Amino acid sequence: MSETVRTFIAIELPEEVRAYLADSQERLRRAGGDVKWTRPDLIHLTLVFLGEVPTEALADLEKSVREAVAGHAAIALRATGAGRFPPKGLPRVIWIGLEETTGRLLALQKALADATAAFAEKAEDRAYQAHLTLGRVRGPKGARDLEGILDSMSGQTGPTFEAREVTIFKSALGPQGPTYTPLAKITLGDGGS
Fold it and tell me: Where are the beta strands (DSSP E) in 12-64?
């Protein structure tokens, strides 16, 4: 049986966005909800989650990603708003949204999803929605207050940044939380190997 690596493709965030996310988490903590907060240094924009990929397929995966991003230039993104999944009932995931008005982010995500479908454990059955996960709700404690703060944050805007590369990450789950290790960083528009 071959070894596998839990893998995803994402855009890393600059420090000013991470600081903005940490401030947003601090506002939401005041609700006193039962939330497992994501460490700001681990927050990223996931483009495609692949799951377990055989180690012998990683070079082919990187080649596919390079080919997929070759036709895509850097993308301007802005952290904006706040929300939750699901939109009704007890929230399970709390997030900050990302604004990108040209459609280039969705085109990049689709190109990557199509190019890496053969490596994915299963196909994603939901429409892609760009978001930065702040935390996962574990129970109903403080949920109403949490929703109130989220509603008050829905119109806020944060820093703008330019995404110039995508990263293929290895994800290892452990008792202290996940560890993400970059396997390859690929500059947008770079089709070379």
Answer: 35-37, 45-54
